[in-house]
Design goal:
Length: 242
């Protein structure tokens, strides 16, 4: 694993740095494979980053957007990660609708929706059950409980290692989420974390020893690149060994 940690002065600088890294990955992926695949995180931290990406002149027809997790709500619900990303970015660029791959959230049973998204991913990446296709960039946030995607502490989703997609659980509310082995199969995983409220969790994630079920972001150990881009409020005292 190739792990890099950068502490940026504030959220604005964090967004600018994250944009530059993503743009470099877009260029490399399109040069090498003719397309770029990215999975988005939800929450509030990445919103300015999505707004910044929307200002870029990119070959949108070669870019495919997935989600790493989704609240189990309709796409017009204020909590929808898809809605946030569309309003901040995807509604403002000429990306073909076929290149946008939202997680389905209309099935009565979230487990059926998880299976549907898994099948969609397998068809897109031409992968077989049991294989973990490699997305070019997976964007991740981290909660103040050290969850990432919808892999919450002490939940069953943390034990799922034979599938791409599973059902997460936040306070009894279902979510769809990438599993940790699917995240770890990515070419590049980018955590983008901001805010003093994340500091205690970040300290535990970076501690030499701590329980992964209590601090699920510790499960993210990709074979490819792992970037932690954090603002000073969250990570000024991180021991950085780049
Ligand atoms: C979600 C996210 C989740 C998020 C963290 C951080 O659906 O909410 O995918 O994993 O990244 O909870 O959220 P904030 O950026 O709002 O702090």
């Amino acid at each position: 694993m190739n792990k890099k940690v950068e502490v940026l002065p504030d959220h604005k600088a964090l967004t600018a740095r994250s944009l530059l890294l993503i743009l470099s990955k877009v260029e490399t992926a399109i040069q090498q494979q003719g397309r770029f695949t990215i999975a988005l995180s939800g929450g509030s931290t990445p919103k300015p980053l999505y707004e910044a990406i929307a200002t870029q002149k990119l070959p949108w027809e070669k870019i495919h957007v997935f989600w790493g997790d989704e609240r189990y709500v309709t796409p017009d619900h204020p909590d929808s990660n898809q809605l946030m990303a569309c309003r901040a970015w995807l509604d403002h660029v000429d990306i073909p609708w076929a290149n946008i791959h939202p997680m389905p959230t209309s099935d009565t049973d979230p487990a059926d929706a998880a299976a549907k998204y898994e099948q969609h991913l397998q068809e897109f990446f031409h992968s077989s059950p049991g294989e973990f296709p490699s997305i070019d960039v997976i964007l991740l946030g981290m909660g103040d409980d050290a969850h990432t995607a919808s892999l919450f502490p002490h939940t069953e989703a943390l034990k799922v290692s034979d599938r791409l997609i599973t059902v997460g659980n936040k306070d009894g509310n279902p979510r769809l989420t990438f599993t940790y082995p699917f995240i770890n199969a990515a070419s590049c995983v980018m955590f983008v974390v901001a805010g003093a409220n994340k500091r205690p969790a970040l300290d535990q994630v970076f501690a030499p020893v701590a329980d992964e079920f209590t601090y699920p972001s510790r499960l993210i150990q990709p074979q490819g690149e792992l970037w932690w881009l954090v603002d000073a409020a969250a990570g000024s005292d991180l021991q950085i060994q780049n």
